[in-house]
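pls ignore typos typing on phone
protoporphyrin IX containing FE + seq
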Amino acid sequence: MPGPERSLLAPGLGRLASFDYACPVALVGPQPLLNSSPLSVLLSDLREERAASVPFPPGETRLSMARTRRFANEPLPMLLDAYERFGPVFTLRLFHSNVVFMLGPAANHYITVTHASNFLWREGHFRDLIGLMGDGLLTIDGEFHRRSRLIMLPAFHREHIAASVEVIVEETTRALEQFTPGAVVDLYAITRRLALRVAMRALFGLDPDGERARAIDAAGLFEQALAFYASEYVLRVFRGRGSPWARLQAAARKLDTLIYSEIAERRATGRRGQDILSLLLDAHDEDGNTLSDLQIRDEVMTLMFAGHDTTTSTVSFMFYELARHPQIVDRLLAEQDAELAGRRPSASQMVSGELGELELVLEETLRKYPPAWVGPRRAIDAFEFEGHTVPERAFVNYCSWASHHLPDVFAEPEAFRPERFTPEARAALPKGAYVPFGGGSRTCIGMRFGQLEVRTIATVILSRFTFSLPEDFRLEIRQMPTISPKRGLPVIVHPRASAPLADLSAAA
Ligand code: HEM
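k done
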């Protein structure tokens, strides 16, 4: 079933600008429209840059396609090199525009917490994501963002997400059927499918085995849509047949069919559950206005994307590091034996992160490989930070990935050391040093759900299997726009030597 037509790149939200879940609120204005023509967007960026009232911070500001290409492929070494040369605030010209990067604890805290109201997400460097997600929580700003968050927060409360542990154990147990001892499997591809099934079931009450979901390959379609963000900058401005943009749109339209038909069915039957879709369908403002299908679609698409892509990467990077550190695996298995003693993990263990060794591994994985690695923003007004001026309307990014690799904050940053996150070591970190989930009013809304999901998937996998890496495998990382292993994660499967958790199979 096709949904409402979306005529512009970002249609704005004028039809129903505000809504409320629990208490009446006043209507607020629509989100600004973004121009749909890449050429006029480009020209407007250049005009605004030329009109800047104060200089950009030092850096590499001459046009260079080689730099642009290198940044798309290897942003981390470039950012760390620029930090060495220019300090925590610098400018890189990427494609047509100057982009200011602010690295380190103070910068992260400045952008996400103390001065967050001077920055817009929607007009930042990742604004193309609006083409896939529309106006969901990630891509909106200001009062509309605040109210949208209020609507969705109840769905992420502890007791709500605790109920997902059952689904995650069941889905992971099922996914383990693909693991044959001695065989090589692509853990990244398996986890993407698993995480999408979990997101569909746990967040939206969608049946991944139902007729509608089976008719499309949702994981494949997300892969196809997100490939746009891995394509060459210059190709991203084209809109014609066969362009990365056209492929993104085609995939989004197929995913829309699934979402809109579910909305229609729920509206027609009145069927509701404890899921976010039910929450959105019943949201209303004080005049009884409800959300349009288009608005619900945008939130669902945003959460489906954010809710599976990040956890997929985290699980993959975690098992990549575990395959290289058998002594850490031994500690995790000993912990399972002691804490679970053959029982399946309980919801409270998984919600609270009670398996301490696993928790350290999770935190260190998110330090070294924060999947949402960059926080793209656009400055509203000019400002000063650490002795440099940044003009109004400048693209400004904070970057957890580079900030987590500053040797004066995390010694020997390339080493995988879970003990960095013992309570004492963590307490000694400066404010803003560790930001895998962002911070302030835009802190990841799915943080608890994501942590719980990764913990549960890892616990179930480790109850049965450990992995090693094929000898010729070298990890390369791509950004799409979250970071993930570039060519998947091939692992050799080994059955666990000691007794597996006894009653997991009962859940399958
Ligand atoms: C390991 C898992 C995850 C990581 C590392 C992660 C990371 C992040 C980060 C860094 C941000 C802030 C980006 C910025 O400042 O620009 C963010 C925002 C967001 N995340 Fe996550 N995320 C994870 C899982 C999830 C899950 C499971 C969901 C949904 C179920 C989710 C939904 C969102 C949404 C909707 C936002 C936008 C929040 C807002 O602007 O109010 N994330 N995430």
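The two ends are 32 Å apart (CA to CA). The pocket of protoporphyrin IX containing FE is lined by residues 121, 137-138, 149, 203, 302-303, 306-307, 310-311, 314, 366, 370-372, 375, 436-438, 442, 444-446, 449-450, 454 (CB under 6 Å). more later
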